Amino acid sequence: MEGAFYQNRNQLTESTDDYYAAPLRRVFYVLKKQMVLQYVTTLVLDELTAPAALVKEILCDEPYNVRILSLRGVKNLGDEKLIQILRYLIRPSRPADTPKLKGLYYFTPANRPSSSLSNPGTQHLPLRQAEGVTTVAGSHLGYRAPSTRTLPIGATWTNGEGNLFHPNHETNETWAQLIEACQGIIAFDTVVCSHGLRSSLPPRLASIALNANGCQKCQSAPEQALTYGKTPRHQLPLLSPPPLFSSTVKAAQCLAPGEQPSFYARCAQCMKDRRCESCTVWWCEDCYATPEKRFQANKTGMEPEIKVHMGFCVSKCLIEELYTGLGEGGMWG
User: Fold this and answer.
1) Which sign does the torsion angle of CA 90, 164, 262, 260 carry?
2) Residue 167 has what pLDDT?
3) Is 177 helix (H, G, I), strand (E, B) or coil?
4) CA neighbours within 13 Å on the CB side: how many for 63?
């Protein structure tokens, strides 16, 4: 009876996946009949329904030839199943010249440019060219032109101002371990946090971009800043939106000619109580001990006073916030 129960549950899961995958499978079938599918090398499925079975087909089966895949905000997928697929792709016994996939967008929000300079491959495209599927080789399937409405305010890797995605993902050590294993094989739209070179901390995904000006006190950091055009590509995150007409990691990390922005990539855990969420100034581990480790400050000579409280720097933004709250209708008014 127990075996029959698990068998029926697996069959139910498969039938559910088939149900949710049906709309996209119909699209892919039409493209295959028209001899287009094998030329689609950049595929964007952001915020669509794409169960694990369909994603595995796209990444493992013929005639798919997808090299840059975007699964940001997809439904009915789940981290565990996607991690299993990626582990299969990079297995030591994989055939030569595999996997075909070279870049995966999954963590940053959909339709939010991660470069204020914009990826040159997406600039000045007429609306009719920027939407839908074209029949040329290397066509971009699923691209939707950004809305004319203002996008939600958030950080980008290249402007160094705050959170890129929700920290729920960063606490998953399995993701961090997988991305480390994929280094040089598959690039992602995030990197693993360096933790200020503190090896005692567990691996986490970097979800915060820090400005390249460095620590408020020493204007530096324990680790080197990441710089597009100088840092090895396998150590850099992909930039949004995905490239339209060149499905390579180089194109996905491409900026305007001559631009080489720098930033530090950190997780929320190691930036707790050492970064102002308002003006984005921050203090490194060498210059400031957080309140939880204030006892260490007396031994090492670091300044014992509190720099950040409730997410605001004490010297400026916290005072401004308190004064604002004293007014009519404010927090304290």
Assistant:
1) positive
2) 63
3) helix
4) 13
Cis peptide, bond prior to residue 99, ω within 30 of zero: yes
Please enumerate in sequence order all residues whose Cβ is within 8 A of that of 214, keeping only pairs 6 or more positions apart, or say none: 220, 221, 225, 264, 284
**pLDDT digits over 160-214, tens only?**
667 887 666 666 789 999 999 999 999 999 999 988 777 678 889 998 999 888 9
β-strands 68-70, 42-44 pairing: parallel
Terminus-to-terminus CA distance in the chain, angstroms? 66
Are 232 and 184 contacting, i.e. CB atoms less than 8 angstroms apart?
no
Phi-psi region of 59 (alpha: psi -120 to 50; beta: other; left: phi over 0): alpha
Higher pLDDT residue, 136 or 14?
14
- Contacts within 8 Å (CB) and 24+ apart, 91-99: 99/59, 99/185, 99/186
Q: What is the DSSP letter of 288?
A: B
Which of 149-163, 196-210, 296-310 has the lowest average pLDDT?
149-163
E strand or H helix at 2: helix 2-33
Contact of 198 with 285, CB cutoff 8 Å: yes
Q: Which two tokens stand for residue 84?
A: 């299993």
Mean pLDDT (whole number) for 114-143: 40
- Of 243, 198, 218, 201, residue with least CA distance to 302: 218
**In 10 A of CB 120, how many CB atoms?**
15
> How far is the C-alpha of 122 from the C-alpha of 131, rounded, in Å?
12
Give yes or no for a contact between 208 and 155, defined as CB atoms under 8 angstroms apart. yes
Confidence of residue 133 (pLDDT cuts 50, 70, 90): very low
Cα angle 199, 205, 206 (rounded to 5 degrees) comes to 95
- One-letter amino acid at 88 equals Y
- Please give the structure tokens belonging to residue 274: 């050492």
- pTM, entire model: 0.79
Average pLDDT in the chain = 78
pLDDT at position 58 is 96
Comparing 17-21, 233-237, 289-293, the range with the smallest average pLDDT is 289-293
* Length of the chain, in residues: 333
